[in-house]
Design goal:
Largest sheet: 6 strands, mixed
Strand content: 15-25%
Low-confidence stretches: 228-286
Distance between the termini: 48 Å
Number of strands: 8
Order of helices and strands: HHHHEHEHHEHHEHEEEE
Shape: globular
Radius of gyration: 18 Å
Number of helices: 10
Strand order of the largest sheet: 3-2-1-4-5-8
Mean pLDDT: 75
């Protein structure tokens, strides 16, 4: 199998197999495929797109490219959150401590800025003395002791995504739905949380400029979660995904209760942001 042939196949509109995607991701993670070839592949994907099956295969390959974190040492339901980002997006910094204060265990892995957006890790590191480069043991201990911890992506968790994340940032291949969804979900699936809240931004200051694209991204991420977690049946695993405006700073979102199922509005809107959609599937509890 050669990367050259895979690039040409995708460039010509072909569909990559699971085996081809696994080869591409594993070899790139091992530094056996150079950046210039992976850049060409990212651009081919950007213009040609990926099928649902290709997107799921890419997500799983990146999630399993490193360690799969075990959060079993944390008592209770462990929740993670991800925002697709946008101008003025500071939801995690304000929201997660409030949720932790209500008794929910927040075990959050955050990323750096991508494209024109600023990442949660970048914002937190602007505080003197704040460290996000903590060990897994420190991360687990902190969640157990105070109910919340936010850490940066380590070298051992989804390393393929970490490399592709940086590559897409400098090759103008950020805003492709399959690449965004696979990047989000590979990290979240590898991080081991029991539930994940997806905050999908839409508007002129976000990656998803149109509402329909935000809906599609939210649905795509939720679908990948369900495929990985036994179709969300019988194990008490689920997701909530909300799309909210990012025309200017402000946000809206959703909350889901695993004991009762369904979803409900949690926090309000500011400055012409609007709540579009929340969807949650919980099975196996309650």
């Amino acid at each position: 199998m050669r990367m050259y042939d895979l690039i040409m196949k995708k460039r010509n509109g072909g569909t990559l197999t699971k085996e081809e995607i696994n080869y591409m991701v594993s070899e790139y993670t091992a530094d056996k495929i150079p950046d210039y070839q992976m850049s060409a592949m990212m651009m081919a994907i950007y213009f040609r797109g990926m099928t649902k099956e290709e997107t799921v295969a890419l997500t799983m390959a990146m999630a399993h490219s490193g360690d799969m974190m075990d959060l079993g040492a944390i008592q209770g339901v462990k929740v993670d959150k991800h925002s697709t980002g946008g101008v003025g997006d500071k939801t995690s910094i304000a929201l997660t401590p409030m949720v932790a204060a209500c008794g929910v265990k927040i075990a959050k892995m955050s990323g750096r800025g991508l494209g024109h957006t600023g990442g949660t890790i970048d914002k937190l590191e602007s505080f003197a003395g704040f460290s996000t480069g903590i060990s897994a043991d420190h991360f687990l201990r902190q969640v157990n002791e105070i109910g919340i911890s936010i850490m940066g992506q380590t070298l051992d968790i989804a390393p393929a995504d970490k490399k592709l994340y940086a590559l897409r940032d400098v090759t103008a291949t950020v805003d492709n739905m399959s690449l965004i969804a696979s990047s989000i979900m590979s990290k979240k699936l590898a991080s081991g949380a029991d539930a994940i809240v997806l905050d999908v931004k839409t508007g002129s200051g976000a990656f998803m400029k149109e509402e329909k694209d935000a809906f599609a991204l939210g649905n795509g991420c939720h679908r990948q979660q369900c495929r990985q977690k036994n179709h969300c049946r019988g194990i008490g695993y689920g997701s909530a995904s909300g799309a909210c405006g990012r025309q200017r700073p402000g946000s809206a979102g959703s909350h889901s209760d695993p004991e009762r199922g369904g979803s409900r509005r949690l926090y309000g809107t500011l400055h012409d942001s609007w709540f579009l959609y929340a969807d949650c599937r919980w099975q196996g509890k309650g």
